Amino acid sequence: MRVSLFQNILTLLPPEVAHNLRMRLMRFVGRMPLGRWWMKQLYAPKQKELHTEVLGLSFRNPIGVAAGFDPDGDNLKNLGAMGFGFVELGSVMSRRHPGTPRPRLKRIRFKSSYLDKTGYPSLGLEHALSNVRKRHKHTKQLVIGCNISKITLTHPDDIAKEYLRVFRNMYQYVDFFVINIACSTSTKPFEPRTAEEIHAIIDPLFEFRRGQLDYRPVLLKISPDLTREELDTIIDILIETPLDGIEAVAGSSAMAKEQGCSTGGAVTGAMLIERAIDTVSYIAEKTEHNYPIIGSGGMMRPTDVKRMMEAGASLVALNTGLREHGMRMLKASVDELRNNPVTESTK
Ligand SMILES: Cc1cc2nc3c(=O)[nH]c(=O)nc-3n(C[C@H](O)[C@H](O)[C@H](O)COP(=O)(O)O)c2cc1C
Q: Whose CA is nearest to atom 23 of ligand 1?
């Protein structure tokens, strides 16, 4: 995959500075006359044959943007114009959350990976709402998911209420939800792992959904550090409750510890790929490919996207790969999937 000169310059900058610069530039170009048309010409895949139906929703292609890339939804219209199948907005938090003090995102040298200690900064629910309330022509075809995480310092008794508050307020404006119960990369990692802890968070969401006219699928985003036993618990929850699917995986806090990081944080990027694929294929096999899985973690090249789909993912969500290799990765991944289709027999 050819990387642009602009992308090469960005990789010389600290990763958070580079990303903020990209997102600001995207917003600036998007506001100019013909700006979005130009982004569409430059980045959007032309092929229509990757159109896919998952979760009862219609995706123009299975490749999306993972949470944390456009956390507050400020670039939804531009990412829509670029042709992504979906964007996972967020993590949306119930109120403004500054995250951990900078510098908090580091490249792990020679490993195409990040050490993420951002703590998931968010401008809060009201800001996200202002960006999703009105659908624009470029977001009409874009499926929008809302990822919800808890704020680092929330008291354990209030965690479920916090998820529910964001869920209720965003319900009518987005197409699906991802409930992130993986590590929040902050100094106080939060990873509920027992069935009881997970039920306490998702059951109130199902109860609220039961009273609504429109159905919004709910997925659980999980950590790559779960034991097989913990994964089996998640699979049981998937089968026994109205949960619609799983997103696997978030960044790895265990790998961050191996990197000598004792104060929270998670590894993202290339170092994650084998564990992410292993987790996706384990869930897919155990559930006989009957439930949608969003594959996330370590996809740095189009061939990684294909491997993730072969492992059993119905959709894939990119983050570090897009940051390090640029927005051309979408078109290159669509070409890869079109030229070497993932067939049932390769799954
Ligand atoms: C800077 C950064 C911020 C992130 N923020 C969030 C977030 O707010 N919520 C979330 O669920 N995941 C977040 N993630 C995790 C990603 O969505 C993704 O699951 C993880 O990075 C693995 O994918 P990747 O290897 O393609 O980056 C973030 C990742 C990075 C690198």
A: 297
Structure tokens belonging to residue 174: 């987005």
- Contact of 163 with 199, CB cutoff 8 Å: no
- The rounded Å distance from CA 253 to ligand 1 centre is 12
**Ligand 1 near 252 CB (within 6 A):** no
Q: List domains and CATH numbers for the chain.
A: 5-338 (3.20.20.70)
Model confidence over 32-49: pLDDT tens digits?
A: 889 999 999 999 998 778
Q: Identify each DSSP E strand in the chain by its residue range.
A: 52-54, 57-59, 63-65, 86-92, 105-108, 113-116, 143-148, 176-180, 218-222, 245-248, 266-269, 293-296, 315-318
Tokens of 127: 């800001």
pLDDT for res 186: 62
| Single pTM value for the model | 0.95
Strand pairing class (143-148; 245-248): unpaired
Backbone angles phi, psi at 65, to 5 degrees: -100, 130
| 318 pocket-lining for ligand 1 (C-beta < 6 Å) | yes
Atom of ligand 1 nearest to the CA of 269: 25
- pLDDT tens for each residue of 299-314: 999 999 999 999 999 9
